[in-house]
Write a structure and sequence with these properties.
With 402 residues, the protein is mainly alpha-helical. The protein has 17 helices and three strands.
Length: 402
């Protein structure tokens, strides 16, 4: 009985068939005198094979940290999880950590790298890439100078957390086996509420002193930004990116519609999209609605003097307010423009304003399944009543922007 001819594996058939075809074509071409045509065909085939081999080799080369960082940020932006500004901020963080541990293959990051990164971050100064004092210096050179002012614990934890989030992304894609930066954050002994302090009554008296709180006619808008923060608790960027058409009337109440209806706006999260009643003190004492009408004649935006810097309209104003605050004698480093927001939140708490109403006004996610998941938006009448309870009229009785 004849032994059956061995049948090649199915996976090899295309290659064998292709090889046989090239051989047959070559024989036929030789017979027809078409050697040049055959040579070109073989070259093309060999070129394709070589390209495939090179791509296979490249796929075996481990991806470095920074190359993976770029893919991570691109993925986060495509899926709408981060803004352009956050992407740039994250990349600066990733580059800084890479300067410390080296731009090695992402799979080679060790627990020792995490320890080194954490220890180094605690010794580095803030604004490392912006301050002329550190420009052009290596991490080692900066450490040798022993900066007197170093990154806050909050910033260090933010850097570690952002890098850990990146490594979790790598973990899901099986680029690494373990995340050495998981749980690297340092426990802060101070409570979260102490990270950014509220303004005291004395602070507010200083900030609103008539001798200080006075502006030229073409800069009255600076005062209105402070008044909006003080009376509503809005975030700085929410105020600075407002458009005149964001002033709306709902159920007979003048409100501010906080949205991202235009490309130049951005919100912190989905809970930030809301409406807030305009406190009566702004309308009656400071003629806020008249101010809006005047600004409408200048264009669409409520504060057109502000220009975007690093993706934020509030960037320049934040720096201006820091100078203003310090000139007023409010020099505590734990206090900034965002302290107005903490002031409003603290006042709501002391007045026993219902949590769901305060959260709706401040743009926070309402905790709990009942209000958070199933609850509808709070009525503007309830929010207006809560804002009136802040009772800012007496505090602002000596202030004028006319």
């Amino acid at each position: 009985m004849e032994r059956p001819t061995e049948v090649p594996e199915i996976d090899h058939l295309p290659w064998l068939i292709g090889t046989q075809m090239l051989h047959d074509c070559g024989t036929r071409a030789s017979e027809l005198g078409l050697k040049t045509l055959m040579t070109d065909s073989v070259k093309d085939a060999l070129r394709e094979i070589e390209t495939e081999r090179q791509e296979a080799k490249r796929s075996l080369v481990p991806s470095t940290i920074l190359s993976c960082c770029l893919e991570y940020l691109a993925d986060r932006q495509i899926t709408g999880r981060i803004s352009d500004k956050t992407a740039r901020e994250n990349m600066a963080i990733f580059e800084l950590i890479t300067q410390i541990i080296g731009d090695k293959a992402v799979g080679e990051i060790t627990y020792e790298d995490m320890v080194a990164a954490r220890a180094t971050l605690l010794k580095l100064p803030p604004n490392l890439n912006k301050s002329p004092a550190w420009r052009g210096l290596s991490i080692g050179q900066v450490l040798q100078l022993k900066p007197k002012r170093t990154l806050s614990l909050r910033s260090v934890n933010k850097y570690l957390n952002r890098f850990s989030s990146f490594l979790n992304w790598c973990l899901k894609r099986r680029l690494i086996q373990v995340n050495p930066f998981q749980g690297a954050q340092i426990r802060d002994k101070n409570s979260a509420s102490q990270a950014r302090l509220a303004f005291t009554p004395e602070d507010l008296r200083r900030l609103l002193a008539p001798s200080r709180f006075c502006f030229p006619a073409d800069e009255r808008w600076r005062g209105f930004i402070i008044l909006l923060a003080l009376t509503t608790g809005m975030r700085l960027e929410e105020i600075c990116q407002l458009r005149c058409d964001d002033l709306v009337r709902i159920d007979g109440i003048h409100c501010i519609d906080i949205n991202e209806n235009t490309d130049d706006k951005r919100l912190k999260n989905t809970a930030s999209r809301r409406v807030i009643p305009v406190p009566s003190v702004l309308i009656e004492r400071f003629a806020f609605l008249d101010f809006v009408d005047q600004q409408r004649s200048l264009g669409a935006r409520l504060f057109p003097a502000l220009r975007k810097i690093d993706g934020c309209y509030g960037h320049a104003y934040s720096k201006w307010f820091r100078v203003y605050r310090e000139r007023c004698g409010v020099t505590d480093p734990g206090k900034a423009f965002h302290s107005f927001r903490h002031t409003v939140a603290t006042r709501f708490k002391s007045l026993d304003v219902p949590l769901y109403v305060a959260a709706e006004i401040l743009g926070h996610t309402v905790p709990g399944m009942t209000y958070g998941h199933y609850g509808k938006a709070t009525s503007v009448h309830k929010m207006a009543a809560a804002l009136e309870r802040l009772d800012c009229a007496e505090m602002l009785s000596r202030v004028s922007l006319r």
